[in-house]
Amino acid sequence: MKLKFIFSLFTALLLTAACTKKQDIPIEFLSMELQSNQQERNLNILENEIDGVTTKHLTLSNITNKKVELEKGYKTIYLFISGYGKLTLGDSIYDIVPETIMLPNNVKNISFQPLENETLHYLKVSVFQTELDIEDIKTFPKENVNTMYFKKFTDCESYTEPIKSPQTTSRTILPNKIIPRVAMGTVKTIGPDKVGAHEHGMLEQLFLGLKGNQTIVYADEAQIDFPEYSLLHIPRGSSHSVSVNKNNEMYYVWMDFFVDKDGEEWLKTHNTKDD
Q: Of 48, 141, 156, 273, which is most buried by a Cβ count within 10 Å?
């Protein structure tokens, strides 16, 4: 009887481990069309996926200035993914083009609007600042905190990584030490190609498919088609990879949200020309 109980318990543990290992890949597809009577839309995307992280897909088609509001207790990233516009800060005007990143940081009086007959689509990613984050950011370079960060993806520094092929172009669009425990980058290549399987238990990760992206994402035993203008969550700790078939394009943003600042050591796997 005792042996039977032990065997049953062992079997239950194996089944639990198998169920734990097999995870779905949460994904949401961005709606890129406005209804005829709409000029503005604000949708939560992948709600409650990552503690302390809120993602919203916003769409703006009227040419009224949209003022950037600084939200107390949060740091916010704007990812402009489609449409053209202009951003105003004091006497300075910046061109918004598809695939531009902006962080207001501590800067006030920033506003933006679409150009005439244009529709702006952008993601707004807000990250809650813990007490440790608030202390940590005090050690950051002042220019990283007190100036607006505004860059086209293609103007950002490139890097290589052992899990990617030489034909892959990767860029760091948001270095760490601007927002505590956050970094972002892009991956671009033409198939057949892949990002090799790897694991990182020290961070949560979102992938945002950019225009033309047509790939497949794998996480443990799960796999899912990952098209342009979609957002997915890589299950934390999973063995995950990305593949792209012949003549298709891989082009996405990775967003890393580290559990603690020690986890940022992972970024040392990114090799820049200065390394």
A: 156
pLDDT the model gives residue 17: 47
CA dist 122 and 176 (Å) reads 21
What size, in residues, is the chain? 275
Half-sphere exposure at residue 255, Cβ-oriented, CA atoms within 13 angstroms: 22
Q: Is the pTM of this model over 0.85?
A: yes
pLDDT of residue 15: 47
Instruction: Identify how many contiguous H helices and E strands the chain contains and give both numbers.
Output: 3, 21
Is 171 a domain residue?
A: yes
Query: Looking at residue 9, what is its pLDDT?
Result: 46
- Please report whether residue 22 resides in a domain: no
**Phi, psi (degrees; rounded to nearest 5) at 265:** -60, -25
Q: Which domain holds residue 259?
A: 27-269
Phi, psi of 116 (to 5 degrees): -60, 135
Q: Is residue 2 part of a domain?
A: no
Alpha helices for the chain (secondary structure H): 2-21, 131-136, 142-146
Asked whether the CA dihedral 113, 114, 119, 121 is positive or negative, the reply is: negative
With contact defined as beta carbons under 8 Å apart, do 61 and 134 qualify? no
Q: Which stretches of the chain score pLDDT less than 50?
A: 1, 5-7, 9-21, 275
Instruction: Give pLDDT, residue 104.
Output: 98
**Beta bridge partners of residue 102, listed in sequence order:** 78, 150
CATH number of the domain to which 93 belongs: 2.60.120.10
Please indicate, yes or no, if residue 136 is contained in any of the structural domains: yes
d(CA 156, CA 33) in angstroms, rounded, equals 29
